[in-house]
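Researcher: I'd like a structural prediction for the single chain below. Treat it as a standalone chain; there are no partners to consider.
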Amino acid sequence: MAESLSARNIVKNYGAVAALSDGNLDVQAREVVALIGANGSGKSTMSKVINGVVVLDGGQLLLDGHPIQFSSPQTAKDAGIATVFQELSLIPQMTVAENIWLTREPLNALGQVDRKVVNARTEELLALFEGTFKTDLHPDAPVAS
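Model: Treating it as a single chain, here is the predicted structure.
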């Protein structure tokens, strides 16, 4: 697993509109980072560049000090990069746990989703937010409830 990701002087334009100019960010392995800022400040654009959703127009991404550009979210995921976008869409028919682990489900030795691990990890994640929002969520509860 990579130990550090750095974004240096990132630029992303959409035609004449500068979605991000001179964006910088440093993240260490196992570190969780929230990008906070005003609307239009480039948070989503920076996330999309880091995650391989969009190609940067200038600047450089460095993985452990080596230049890299992710060609897709899968290549970023393969390098250990995970992002959660502010435009997160939930699937109401699925459970809380299924929504959290969608596309990253822990598997057992048979290659099947390990429901016990999914629920245990979801409980751990929900506990981190205790007191900050609705804390009576259960991993098996449908999101629509």
